[in-house]
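Researcher: Next entry in the queue.
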Amino acid sequence: MIRVEDSRRVLVMATLAIVLAMVSFTRPAHSQSSTALNVVYVESNIGSTKNSNSVFAYSNDGTGKLTAVAGSPFLTGGTGVYDPSQEKGKTEFDADQQVLVSPSNNLLFAVNGDSNTFAVFSISTANGSLAALPGSPFKSNGSDPVSFGLLYNILTGPESWLAVVNKGADPNQTDAAPNISVFRVTSAGIPTLDTKATVNLTANTSPSQILTATGSAAKHQFWAFLDQYQTAGSSLAGIYSYLVQGNGGLKSVNFTADPTDPPTLGLAANSKYRVLYAGLPTLNEVGVFFYSPSTGTTTFSSAVANPGKGVGWLAVGPTGTAHFLYTSEAGSGTVTVYQITGNGLTLTQVQQFTLTGASTIPGNLAFDTTGKFLYCLDNVHATLHVLDVDSTTGKLSEPNAPIALNVPTGEEPLGLAVD
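Model: Structure for this entry, 419 residues:
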């Protein structure tokens, strides 16, 4: 004889089994739709025609084959920086993170260097297409914006503040002195300038990139690092460390540099250790720096030889790991791979890879969301290389021809971001 309690238990278990079956039936479709979005964004940086700057969007099918997202390119509402072959001799193209994705807010930011503004887009979760937010583009509070950094802090949560580096090196306008401007980003994605948080930098210096670090490696503190590139021997070239405060402001901590090769070009952070890597292009080396988890003080550790010429932009990966460091070398058309050991401080070269094509000039680097591919932008030739990454050895290969970016002659696309 079955008791009432038993019959109820059977009914509950049967109902639970039905629910679990429904979940197991529907989850694969949901997982496919959520993981199918693998998009890379590149800014066209068109500056020869006013208000023609845009962002290219390409979907990666999982094999490294890229297809343009419907509607691409997406206009930013502003103008890029135009200087074919850098004839005017400034450092306006020496920068990274000109486009940046905010995963928590599902936003993409893009600079308009000659317009002194930046665009903010919402990202479609269906296909990665972009839609400009109301009021976009927004004033950058300076001239020639070149780099974004998401500021994390304990009071207002992740990605609620945005740092914008205004380089002040656009040869087509009268530039103001460079600065770092800080914006509060609302839940709707609208940025508002914090007028009290601006960090003014020395005139005629050349800030190239702002990088932020947080999480367990940073002992849950919030740090920002500025890459300052100048002529060799300048006392202002190197890495500047800042504490991100609760109100989004940046408090200066210290400055450090390689004593024999001060100019740094490009930064990458190790996600597992409190270590930063910087390009040292004047002597073809990679600088290794570490920072204190309690004070944020940054210290030079060593310089590692690089076999290429003009080492610049860097990336640590594959995605989700800190096993390898990748550096691009504009003067030799190569990307060098180092294995990372010794608490992040030891670099051992495992490969120097030459990009496909004639006279390539590699620049910005970024991993795709899966870590299987490394994107490398040749801004001078307006091409995007998709490199296969061996997850075990870190070595690179390039089975497919690079993507030609459709920009007018003389334009130099800049910046990579992935979603």
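Model: The CA atoms of residues 244 and 250 lie 5 Å apart.
Researcher: Noted, moving on.
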